[in-house]
Structure to design on (632 residues):
């Protein structure tokens, strides 16, 4: 399994390294000694069946949930305590499934939530925020069917909302974008557009982690695939070194599945 | 090991992504931005609709027109615009409820609510009277506001630390503070020494002919809270926390802190309302302010706040309060029996909540 080592030596220091991450809830071990590293401008597919620990890993990565033990290094610096404000400051943005945006707020207010453009006294410069929003929606992502930056997010479709969330990440020059099941609620065209954005982000040097059930979507855009099974990493391979069939075997059958699959190949 | 796999299958599944997908002609958002004054007005109106305040304001306006017409037909039988009504009743009853509704409303936007408004108002009013009689009214004002803030913050801490629903926490605390106000004051009403506190009554309830000072207080507080909620970043955080707590956390807004601050602001407004009540009545009997709780929440709901959080406007809350108090007043002027106001207000709340629910889906 030289794949992950090869990618590590290819670039300089990885953007994010997590080493030996373990998470326990009471007696249940959700993540067991998981190590991953993400390079700059890399698109990673984080795969696994329900309950494999994907969501927990994403939450730990973004600092929403603390880990039980393990190391977390951002661009080589070890973070003592991984909190959301800390990861946010470093440039990590997570787009959680169905909860990336606040439905009862306008697009502008969503894009600037927590990072408002204000005067000295904390009052928002709404006009300026509206015109920035209009500009980034016109240039960063092309979204059909949005009329105005003042529209409520609840009036957008799932695809439009995801695109707004991505536009926000790009505008604020995030360096690592984590998308938790972004395609699960999208139509075919919207999915296609979303996957295209990820490739475009890569060109800007933004890394992304695509958490998904859909191996075909992942295979289309990801440079590297990490498969989790029962809280362990069972596969960490570059796209060139694997196939959808092998990833499927890993997700469905775990480590045994991969072994069986390789054996079959060897036999064939 | 992985290199042993056939390369052919990966080559076929790797599609070349067409990044120049923007072939269809689409208007950019920048083209949609209105350039004329009337265009801007129309745009603003479109995005105000469905958020509660516009709809209730129109209904309220229609109602006022009807009452004024009735007044001009028979000014003796229905003295709606007579100073005795506008100054003596409306401009005193609306502000108290409006200030309470703004407090309850911002708390609802943050996704919490507080059933101890009435109890807290009663206790703060009693404390105000006691301190005003023994010291001076400005000191009493500060003490009363701090008292109500303390009560609200305690509720906030209980709700946030333990995670129990605010409904049950504040219901319990409500009974506790009613008991506390009886313990502090006894069962007889606390009376303000009116001679000693003449200035206070002038400041809070001075008669200006057609209206009283409370109205100025309401407008002032309304403007301040409008700026805080709709123009300050803190207001944006309140909406974010109430609308989707997970999304707010993801952008580093701290929900617990925002909620606690909102509880504090709510408490301060309750304290001010308590002072306004004393300015009007000059006394306070423990245990008689329970009605304020439900009326405040009702006014916020009528004004477009959603019980599930994230929705509501300061303007709507004020109009909601004005609506309830005006209907009550008109029923009394029309010599309806005193159970009618309750019947009507009760129905209004249910209808408003239903209308709000339907409106939510249509907001643009």
């Amino acid at each position: 399994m030289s794949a992950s080592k090869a990618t590590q030596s290819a670039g300089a220091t990885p953007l994010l390294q997590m080493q030996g991450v373990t998470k326990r809830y009471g007696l249940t071990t959700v993540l067991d000694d998981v190590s991953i590293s993400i390079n700059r401008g890399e698109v990673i597919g984080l795969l696994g069946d329900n309950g494999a620990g994907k969501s927990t890993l994403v939450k730990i990565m973004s600092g929403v949930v603390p880990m039980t033990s393990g190391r977390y290094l951002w661009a080589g610096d070890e973070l003592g305590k991984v909190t959301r404000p800390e990861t946010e400051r470093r440039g990590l943005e997570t787009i959680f499934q169905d909860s990336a945006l606040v439905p009862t707020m306008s697009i502008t207010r969503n894009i600037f939530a927590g990072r408002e453009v204000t005067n000295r006294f904390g009052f928002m410069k709404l006009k300026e925020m509206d015109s920035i929003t209009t500009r980034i929606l016109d240039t960063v992502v092309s979204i059909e069917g949005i009329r105005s930056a003042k529209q409520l997010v609840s009036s957008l479709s799932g695809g439009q909302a995801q695109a707004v969330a991505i536009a926000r990440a790009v505008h604020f020059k995030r360096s690592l974008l984590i998308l938790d099941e972004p395609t699960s609620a999208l139509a075919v065209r919207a999915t296609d557009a979303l996957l295209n954005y990820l490739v475009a982000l890569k060109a800007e040097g933004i890394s992304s982690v695509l958490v998904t059930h859909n191996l075909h979507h992942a295979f289309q855009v990801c440079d590297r695939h990490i498969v989790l099974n029962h809280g362990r990493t069972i596969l960490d391979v570059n796209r060139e070194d694997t196939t959808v069939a092998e990833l499927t075997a890993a997700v469905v059958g775990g480590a045994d599945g991969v072994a069986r699959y390789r054996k079959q190949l060897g036999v064939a | 090991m992985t290199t042993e796999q056939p390369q052919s299958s990966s080559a076929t599944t790797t599609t070349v992504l067409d990044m120049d997908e923007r072939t269809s002609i689409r208007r950019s958002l920048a083209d949609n931005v209105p350039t004329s004054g009337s265009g801007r007005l129309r745009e603003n109106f479109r995005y105000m609709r469905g958020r509660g305040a516009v709809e209730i304001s129109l209904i309220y306006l229609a109602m006022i027109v009807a009452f004024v017409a009735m007044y001009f037909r028979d000014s003796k039988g229905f003295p709606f615009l007579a100073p005795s009504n506008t100054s003596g009743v409306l401009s005193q009853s609306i502000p108290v409820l409006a200030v309470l509704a703004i407090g309850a409303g911002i708390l609802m936007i943050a996704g919490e609510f507080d059933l101890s408004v009435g109890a807290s108002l009663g206790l703060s009013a009693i404390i105000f009277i006691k301190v005003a009689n023994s010291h001076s009214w400005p000191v009493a004002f500060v003490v009363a506001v701090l008292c109500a803030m303390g009560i609200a913050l305690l509720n906030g801490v209980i709700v946030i630390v333990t995670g129990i629903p605010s409904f049950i926490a504040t219901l319990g605390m409500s009974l506790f503070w009613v008991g506390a106000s009886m313990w502090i004051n006894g069962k007889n009403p606390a009376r303000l020494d009116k001679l000693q506190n003449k200035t206070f009554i002038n400041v809070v309830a001075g008669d200006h002919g057609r209206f009283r000072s409370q109205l100025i207080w309401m407008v002032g507080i309304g403007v301040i809270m409008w700026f805080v909620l709709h123009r300050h970043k803190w207001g944006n955080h309140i909406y974010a926390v109430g609308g989707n707590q997970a999304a707010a956390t993801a952008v580093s807004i701290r929900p617990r802190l925002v909620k606690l601050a909102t509880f504090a602001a709510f408490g301060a407004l309750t304290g001010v309302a308590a002072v306004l009540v004393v300015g009007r009545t000059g006394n306070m009997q423990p245990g008689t302010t329970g009605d304020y709780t439900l009326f405040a929440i009702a006014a916020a709901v009528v004004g477009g706040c959603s019980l599930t959080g994230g929705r509501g406007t300061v303007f709507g809350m004020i109009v909601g309060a004005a609506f309830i108090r005006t209907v009550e007043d008109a029923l009394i002027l029309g010599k309806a029996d005193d159970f009618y106001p309750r019947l009507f207000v009760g129905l209004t709340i249910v209808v408003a909540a239903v209308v709000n629910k339907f409106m939510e889906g249509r907001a643009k």
Residues 1-10 of chain A have pLDDT under 50 and may be disordered.
